[in-house]
Amino acid sequence: MPHLVLYNYFRSSTSFRVRAALHLKGLDFEYKPVNLLKGEQHLPQYRNINPMGGVPALVHKEKVISDSTAILEYLNEVFPEPNLFPEDPYLRARVREVCEIVNSSMHPYGNLKVLQHLTVAHGYTHEQKDQWVQKWTTQGLEALETILSNFAGDYCFGNRVTMADLYVFPQLITCQRFNVDLSKYSLLMKIFKNCEYHPDFIKAHLSNQIDTPEELRKS
């Protein structure tokens, strides 16, 4: 088996994406926790791995790749089975569209460093940060609900997991954390429930990692 090392954090939604892909592809990997709340992402030894200081970062054959999208594309090319994209070029483009909606138009607003800045620079309370995430993620949720109505089966695109599910599922967990009202997104919640019971998503879930605090572990 290839020697893969994943630097990540249990609660990071971008880390979840990569953990899920590794499990889906049946790849063993060494889990290296980076505690974002303790500032371990700012330590010089980690900045040498990922100059941006984010998670995840993957090391394969002494080569480092940071940024979850780059990692996922790499894994899918080097370990092509199961393919995380449909065969049809149009559908592949639509999968990437869904991923990009999450990655660019939703995820950044709930990012830890953004929320920390809102607290330090603007004095945001916990409630105000919830409202911030709610405001900026709702547009993305509405777009996803509309787009996926044309493609979804059990999952975002048909009845097998694609890259889109690796982005959508952890983003919905983030929405739950910030008390976003998800009740009107019936299709997204159906996909969420199906992913929630998928064995590889269970393995990747934030509640099941070696750095998960005891109070957040599933009983």
What can you see in these coordinates?
This protein starts with a strand and ends in a 15-residue tail after the last helix. Helix content is 50%, strand content 8%. The protein contains nine helices and four strands; from the N terminus they run βαβαββααααααα. The protein has two domains: 4-82, Glutaredoxin (3-Layer(aba) Sandwich), CATH 3.40.30.10; 89-202, Up-down Bundle (Glutathione S-transferase Yfyf (Class Pi), Chain A, domain 2), CATH 1.20.1050. The radius of gyration is 17 Å and the shape is globular. It is α+β, with helices and mostly antiparallel strands. A four-stranded mixed β-sheet has the order 2-1-3-4, covered by helices on one side. It has helices at 13-24, 44-47, 68-78, 89-105, 112-122, 126-148, 163-177, 186-196, 199-204; strands spanning 4-8, 30-33, 57-60, 63-66. Helix 1 runs parallel beside helix 3, helix 1 packs antiparallel against helix 7 and helix 4 (89-105) runs antiparallel to helix 6. The longest helix is centred in the middle third of the chain and has 23 residues, at 126-148.
Mean residue pLDDT: 96
Q: Give me the count of strands.
A: 4
Q: So what's the overall shape?
A: globular
**Strands side by side in the biggest sheet:** 2-1-3-4
Class based on secondary structure composition and strand pairing: alpha+beta
CATH class of the largest domain: Mainly Alpha
- What is the chains' assembly state? single chain
Task: Describe the largest sheet.
Answer: 4 strands, mixed
- What is the CATH T-level topology of the largest domain? Glutathione S-transferase Yfyf (Class Pi), Chain A, domain 2
Query: Tally the helices: what do you get?
Result: 9
Spans of at least 5 consecutive residues whose pLDDT stays below 50 are: none
Tell me which CATH architecture of the largest domain applies here. Answer: Up-down Bundle
First and last CA, distance: 31 Å
Counting structural domains, the number is 2
